[in-house]
Hints:
Layout: H1 11-22, H2 29-57
Amino acid sequence: xxxxxxxxxxxxxxxxxxxxxxxxxxxxxxEYVRHLIRLENTEKLARELEEDRKQFEAGKYKVLKSLRDLx
Length: 71
């Protein structure tokens, strides 16, 4: 079930949002805002993955012999 959230923003930001919607990439303002939130989440996951990769390459990992080792 969807919930409704009202947000306020200065006119210059609203103009940017309206332009993005009018460009046709997004059907509504809500769709654009959802896209931005998903993008932020994706970028956060990418940063976490990169940090994990660096830790692994530095030899900071644990070899798991069974699923119990996950605890």
